[in-house]
Amino acid sequence: MSKVAEYDYDLLxxxxxxxxxxxxxxxxxxxxxxxxxxxRYLGGTCVNxxxxxxxxxxxxxxxxxxxxxxxxxxxxxxxxxxxxWATLRDNKTSEIKRLNGIYLRLLETAGVSLxxxxxxxEGAHTVAISRQQGEEQRVTAQRILLATGGWPWVPTFPGSExxxxxxxxxxxxxxPERFLVLGGGYIAVEFASIFNGLGSEAHLIYRGDLFLKxxxxxxxxxxxxxxxxxxxxxHFDTNIEAIExxxxxxxxxxxxxxxxxxDAVLAATGRRANVAGLGLASVGLSLNEQGKLDVNERFxxxxxxILALGxxxxxxxxxxxxxxxxxxxxxxxxGTVAPEPLDYTRVPTAVFCHPNIGTVGLSEEAARxxxxxxxxxxxxxxxxxxxxxGSQERTLMKLVVDEATDVVVGAHMVGDDAGEVIxxxxxxxxxxxxxxxxxxxxxxxxxGAEEFVTMRTPAR
Length: 460
Ligand code: NDP
Prior knowledge:
By secondary structure, the chain is an alpha/beta fold. It has twelve helices and 21 strands. The protein has helices at 18-29, 44-49, 51-71, 85-110, 186-198, 217-230, 319-334, 364-371, 385-389, 418-430, 435-439, 451-454; strands at 9-14, 34-38, 113-116, 118-123, 126-130, 136-146, 150-152, 178-182, 201-205, 233-235, 240-245, 250-254, 259-262, 264-267, 271-273, 306-308, 349-351, 357-361, 374-381, 395-402, 408-414. Strands 1, 2, 3, 4, 5, 6 and 16 form a seven-stranded mixed beta sheet that branches. α1 (18-29) packs parallel to α4, α1 (18-29) runs parallel beside α7 and α3 (51-71) packs across α4. Bound molecules: NADPH dihydro-nicotinamide-adenine-dinucleotide phosphate (NDP). NADPH dihydro-nicotinamide-adenine-dinucleotide phosphate binds at residues 155, 182-188, 190, 206-208, 213, 239, 268-271, 316-318, 349-352.
């Protein structure tokens, strides 16, 4: 009997999110016997309560300014546009159901066995799967992949139980007239823009002096100005002290002494590894100081038959990163050639606030620290569309170049479709192209994106 046949499966994946499903499908495609365990929805956070519904709601919120912009181009609107939350919410739910079905079919077609239940480690090769009816089943596998992702984390303060998380925010009964989000990261900034666009009075409370810590400082400041212009109420250097429920809504006391009354409070205060009940201790595993699982370059934990990826390990908490890790993991464990390691230093990312932020590589500050002498090319302008729309919205584009090598080490944009533009620029930055390569590239006219190849004079 072969070694593999000692186990029920070659690979058992716990968690059917982006990383887990991709690993299961790709491993099965190599001929491995694969199963996946999931007790919630197929597709994980991204499909169900993350990227997908967020992007749909961001589209919805953008229409607000589109209606205003259209009149300068000759469009007469029959009256005041109005927004119906229930239509958006229910259409979103139908779309997610459709995606859940696609995920199911992908797994079935790939020949992956699906167990509906909660997986708990019982040994280096054994997982106990408990089902809703209380039944428990033991399944063995040569390798077990932990792909349970992250879960929203909320600090404890008086009334913190009244806060919502991103798990609930998409399915509110109605649009909150007054909306408050706590935090200064991706989720806070995106939802402040979304609810503002949908017509709520939107407040963002952040404990630091400027949101989006870690992003390029000029990008952060530019985004602050633009969100302020859009009407988002930004409150920095303060925090929530307490929340009290009253008849009209929630009374929120801030640490700076201010109080405000709102209808919903979203806590966007970060996510933690989703390992409750996973049985890590039973196999001798524990989280490190960052609250993540340590893995080697083959995604093996300290128990070599147990693998982990995505939001469980200390790499950027982004869906495409989890998917890239899944492909790499499969190459390592089920492939025939040794794969190249993933380059985590030039991962492009977008924040879907209004206007969008797109970024790849180093911020000006990080580049200056790393390379000493750098050149910064930047431009900000009112996009052509807004000459007729009347909107005062501005776009920022910026390239950060290492003086010694002329290599573009960072590219940043705040403006319409910044994520779409930066995805292409990210290939050039990842390839290590120089500013001369950018200069030698012919622009596409008239676009905003052409500015990335026409900036000639360094700003500093
Ligand atoms: P982030 O880690 O990005 O931000 C958390 C925010 O909460 C920070 O501003 C942090 O402040 C603040 N915070 C932490 N603890 C407290 C506290 N005790 N009191 C007050 N504020 C606090 O988390 P998010 O929840 O926004 O998102 C989680 C992750 O999901 C992101 O990091 C990102 O990787 C991913 N994501 C990606 C998206 C995309 O690609 N577009 C969209 C949404 C999420 P401080 O800065 O001072 O630490």
